[in-house]
Amino acid sequence: MPRLIRLAVRAASALLCFVCLWIVLPAPVYPLLVLAVGAPELSPMLLAVAVMLGVIVLVLGRSQTLDRAALGLTLASVGLSLVPIVQIGGTVARFDATMEAALGLNYACAAPAELRWLMRPNPIELPELFTGLRSPPQTLVTRGITFSSPAGQALRLDLYRTAASGRHPAVIQIYGGAWQRGRPVDDSEFATALAAAGYMVIAIDYRHAPQWQWPSQIDDVHAAMRWLRSHADSIGVNLDQVALIGRSSGAELALLAAYLPDSTRIRAVVSYYGPVDLVEGYRRPPRPDPLDVRSIQTAYLGGTPSQVPDRYLAASPITHVTAGLPPTLLIYGRRDHVVEPRFGLELRDSLLASGNVAALLEIPWAEHAFDAVSGGPGSQIALYEVERFLGWSLGDRGKTSSCPAR
Question: How far apart are CA 147 and CA 142, in angstroms?
């Protein structure tokens, strides 16, 4: 039995170290991208496992070379798993400073009182690092509501709301998936958390490429916005307090919907690692490029930039930057090898140059889709800032000066 235990510990140490390596290494292919996305966000768990394995090795003894190698691997895993953890404090401080510079001192105080008291009290809740984002029982979910049927294809949405009566601010949530896959149920834990914070979350569907190409997807988003306008009274939504949130390809659609003319007044838009300049994204794909960005864009737009240049320009949010746009929050992982954070910087600078309000947050340890790991440090910190940004955007921005300092 001790021999089997030693073999198991050695194998576990090697496997753990392999997983932890992707906290710092870029993934060259999709299967490894899954590790590069998940390992940094699971770093607290990986640290706990590494410490436990190290203790077991010490208890069993280091009489053999393989035992000493196992101890070395566990120590390496400890060091790698600490890389995101030691950056959390500085990241939170930097994000707070960035948001105050963009929105004003004590910006969270602009939120309506009914939203402000429901905000997450801390950027990191330690239990959620191991359990995922909390799911308050008072949240009500209604799934599968048909909002449009283009070409006979039923498109459905899910509603997330609290049991509180009255009208609520609304957040339209648009999932990612390279414009080719995904469902409204994606990111349900995030939607549940926002609903518990006082929002009506409308998670919508859209048609997928390559069967349906641009502009089908943005047409579907506009159809969802029309549905919201016509049903606002029955579901209890305040149409003066509507925001958009999207992830990856869904973020591109959210930004477009916020920037293109529409009769729905959009008060804010949040982009999680969204493409903003599809021409430049095609010309200079990431290196490494685990998802083959060019093939994704050609499937979405029906060709290359030289073949369908008008589509690339029309589908790029940065093309539509003008004065008077809704406040924009851009969130990227600094290690993103699908949509590089330089695109967020490009859009932020263009928005600011046009007189708009915009903030860019880069999570230093995070890859693309980092928030797919519910409750990870990146996921929690981003949600903390999103709640405050939405509260400021949907509230009375003139009240910040009279609010006590945090």
Answer: 13
Q: Is omega for the bond preceding 2 within 30 degrees of 0, making it cis? A: no
Comparing CA positions, the residue from 247, 275, 364, 365 lying closest to residue 284 is 275
Rounded to 5 degrees, φ, ψ at 147 are: -115, -15
- d(Cα 208, Cα 206) in Å, to the nearest integer? 6
Strand, helix or coil at 356?
Answer: coil
Gap between the Cα atoms of 339 and 281, Å rounded? 8
Q: Tens digit of pLDDT for each residue in 270-280?
A: 999 999 999 99
Neighbours of 232 (CB within 10 A): 18
Residue 292 CA to residue 279 CA, distance in Å, equals 15
Within its chain, how far is the Cα of 371 from the centroid? 5
100 close to 107: Cβ distance less than 8 angstroms: yes
The residues, any chain, with a CB within 8 Å of residue 156's CB and separated by 6 or more, are 143, 144, 145, 146, 147, 184, 205
The model's pLDDT over 208-235, given as tens digits with 9 standing for 90+, comes to 999 999 999 999 999 999 999 999 999 9
Model confidence over 87-100: pLDDT tens digits?
A: 999 999 999 999 99
Mean pLDDT over the full length of the chain: 93
Is residue 76 a contact partner of residue 107, using CB atoms and an 8 Å limit? no
First-residue to last-residue Cα distance in the chain: 57
Rounded to 5 degrees, φ, ψ at 38 are -80, -35
Contacts of 131 (CB under 8 A, 6+ apart): 375
What is the pTM assigned to this prediction?
A: 0.95
Sign of CA dihedral 301, 303, 305, 311: negative
Task: Answer whether residue 400 shows pLDDT above 70.
Answer: no
Backbone angles phi, psi at 389, to 5 degrees: -65, -45
3-state helix, strand, coil in the chain (%, to 5): 50, 15, 35
Q: Is the pLDDT of residue 53 over 70?
A: yes
Residue indicated by tokens 């990856």: 248
